[in-house]
Amino acid sequence: MLAVADALALILANTDRLPGEACPAGPLLLGRVLAEDVVSDIDSPPFAKSMVDGYALRHQDLGPQGATLRIVEEIFAGQVPRKMLREGEAAGIMTGAPIPAGADAVVMHEKTELSADSSQVRIGGPATAGQNILPQGQEMGRGEQVLPVGTMLRPEELGLLAAVGRTTLRVYRQPTAALLSTGDELVEPAHRPGPGQIRNSNASMLLGQIVRAGCRGEYLGIARDTPGELRPRLLEGLRHDVLIVSGGVSAGKADLAPGLLQEAGVEAIFHKVAIKPGKPLFFGRKSRTLVFGLPGNPVSGFVGFEVFIRPALRKMMGWSRSASETAVAQLAKEFRYKSDRTLYHPARLHVQGDVLQGGSGNLTAEPLDWRGSADLLTVCRAQGLIILPPGEQTLAAGAKVEVLVTGV
Ligand code: AMP
Ligand code: MG
Prior knowledge:
By secondary structure, the chain is an alpha/beta fold. It has helices at 4-13, 155-163, 202-212, 227-237, 257-263, 298-317, 376-380; strands spanning 20-24, 38-39, 49-50, 54-57, 67-75, 89-93, 105-108, 112-114, 120-123, 133-134, 145-147, 168-172, 176-182, 186-187, 198-199, 216-223, 242-246, 267-270, 275-276, 282-286, 289-294, 326-331, 335-339, 342-351, 363-367, 384-388, 391-395, 400-405. The strands form 8 sheets. A 6-stranded mixed beta sheet has the order 7-4-6-5-9-8, with no helix packed on it. Strands 16-13-17-21-20-18 form a 6-stranded mixed beta sheet, with helices on both faces. Helix 1 crosses helix 6 and helix 3 runs parallel beside helix 6 (298-317). The longest helix is centred in the C-terminal third of the chain and has 20 residues, at 298-317. The relative contact order is 0.13. Adenosine monophosphate binds next to helix 3.
């Protein structure tokens, strides 16, 4: 059976980055990925500026006990200094205001004392050259590349893009993933399930995963397990960048999706992966559309999405960072398992000690008492999945394990 890493490699080899498009800058671009290198059009700061409210002065005018200086002007942010400082002179200056010529240090307001007539200021001690001054171009210089292609845009990047004057940007097109739920037993959440029925939890979960991955989700509803209901919905789904079919991909009599997909022209690339939960995972492709068939059990679907679909969506969206986001954690307690496939076991993640209080910051993983692929409730208490190789093992408390962080 195909190993997880080999399955993921096949998926990524079949995944193409979507084309770039020009978009107006703004919060709607959160989570999108730059399709161009961004260069600064200015020095920042554009002039040497004060980082505090206080007095600009010449540091050599101050002795070990400071000095009393004559105030020649007051400079506010947005103004331009009119005077050059000479020996024994100081200028009142506000945060963000340009440093006057001649000055080489700023002493903060709290360390000064104004004379009764406001014409002089007493500085209480020495100063060093450059103190409290942000030199011109220190953050970035004009013409400097500030963000490379492949950068995912967070609020930090949106701010920087504004600082360099970008009002339109080239970003990769956002993929749309269509989601089809299948199963004669399913009813939508608003209905109380009748005999033999269950509520459709997967559509809500998977659409949430699609949106969390930074994509658009298109819900195609529930198709009964008949070719007549499945065929048209599958064809509709194939019009999108990605089609995800939930349920109906195993080997049961009602599992019609793989056959109908191939009938619709989808090339089947694999149909089983050595992963637990979620072995019957279908992956195929029709021209540029990727098709995933996830088993219907909710946790199988959840894990299948995080392990296989999310990396593919990220590649489509232009992410340059590596696909998998795993971390190393220490087991919080002894853990015994047996699995013939790579096991993804739900775990609570803790940061040991409080990082803000000087703790070590070590990540610990507490494996949860999990009832298998239909037990979504336990996954709701987890922040990650411990990844364990096939086999039978007892791991001691403190043993190092790899975890896929799913949500904190
Ligand atoms: P299947 O992969 O279609 O054989 O379904 C496997 C199991 O998952 C069965 O117990 C289904 O009832 C259940 N299941 C299928 N689809 C969903 C869904 N959308 N929401 C919740 N459970 C589902
Ligand atoms: Mg089914």
